[in-house]
What we know:
The chain has 434 residues and is mainly α. The chain is built from 19 helices and no strands.
Amino acid sequence: MSTVEEGIAPPGPAGAPTPPEPAPARRWTRWRLMAALGIFGPGLIAASAGNDAGGIITYASAGSQFAYRTLFVMVLVTVALVVVQEMSARLGVYTGQGLVSLIREHFPLRLAGAALLCLVIANLGLVVSEFAGIAAAFEHFGVSRYLSVPLAAVGVWAAVVLGSYRYAERVFLILTLAFLAYPVAALLGHPHWGTAATQAVTPHFLGTRPFLLLVVALIGTTITPYMQLYQASAVVDKGIGPDDFRRARIDSVFGAVSASIVSVAIIIATAAAIGGSGPLRSASEAARALRPAAGAGAETLFALGLLGASALAAAVVPLSTAYAIAEAVGVERSVSRSFRQAPLFLGLFTAQVVIGALVAIAPGNLVDLLINTQILNGVITPVILTFILVLANRPSVLGDAANGTAYRIAATVCVAAIAVMAILVVGQTLIGTG
C-alpha cells in the first residue's frame, strides 16, 4: 500500500516526510472568526446609524467649543444608550414583534397614532439631512451633489429592495467600517490624551447656557427614536429568537459602546485641532478645520466617515419608518420580501428615499427643516422611550425576561434623564427660533 493511501505524506526532496498541512485547524479558526462576526447585525447597525450627519456636526461642535469637557457627558450617555438599545432588542427577540406592534396592542390607539405621526414627519426630515450629508462628503472630493445624491439614492434603494435582509445587513455592516476613520483622525490630531482621559472620568462642567444646550444636544443626537424602532424590528426580520438572545445582547451592547467610541473620537479630533474656536455649522466645515492641525489626511478621513455615516443612516431611517407604519396597520414588513409581497413596506421606503434625495438637491436653505425635525424628535423621544420602559417592565409582555428590580430602577433613571433633556431641546429650540 502506498504512503498516500496509508495517510502518510510522501517524502520531500531530502527524503524526510513532509508535515501534513494543518487545514482542519485553519478551517476551525476561520469558522470561529465567521461565527464571531456573525454576532453583529441590528445592534451595531442601529447604534452606528445614530452617528449620522447631524450627530457628526454636534460632536464636532462639542470639541470645537469646549474641547474635552463634554467627554464625561458622553460616558453617561453611553450607559443610557446601552440600556435603551438592549431593552429594544429584548422586546423584539422575546415577542417576535416590532415596537409599534407592541405599542398598538398595549397602549391607547390615539396616543400611539400621534407618536407615530410625529415619528414619520421627523424621520422624513432626517432622511433629507442624510442625503445632504452625502452631498457634503462628495463635494469634498469635487463631485457635484447633482450627481452624487441621485447615485447614492439608487445605491441605498437597491441595497434594501433588490436583496434579502441578510444581503442588506452585509451592506450596512460594510458601511459601519467607515466609522473607523474617526479614531484614526483623532490619532492624527495628536490630542492631549491625559487631559482627555481625566475629563472623561471626572465632571468638568461649565455653568453657562451654551454648555448646557450643547450637553442637551449630545444626548438628543445620540439617542433618537428611529434607532430603537429599527433595532426591535430588525431582530424580528432577521429571525432571532429567545435561544439566540445572548448573541443579540452582545450585538446590542457592542453596537452602543462602539458607536459612542466613534462619537468620542470625533470630539477628541476636533478638540485637538480647533478646541475653543467656537461652534461649527456643518460637518464639512469640521473636516476643513482639521487640515491645519492634523493635515489633509485627517480632513479626508473625516469626509469619508461622513459619507459612510450618512449613507448608512439614509437606509436605516426610512427603514425604521417603513417598519413602524407597516406594523401599525398589520401588513407584511420584511426586507426579504418582494414588492408584490410587501408593497406598502417597500413602497414607503422607496418614497422616503426619493423625497429625501429630491429635497436635498433642491435649491434653498434646509436649516428651518432641520430645526423643525429636531423639535419633533424632542417631542417623540420621551414618549417612545416611556413605551419601551413600560413594555420591558411587564412580565405579561416578556415573561421571565422582563426587567428585574435593579434593571428597572436603572432604566427608569436613564429614560427620565433623557426625557428631561429632550424637553429642554424642544424648549431651547423654540426659544431660539421664536
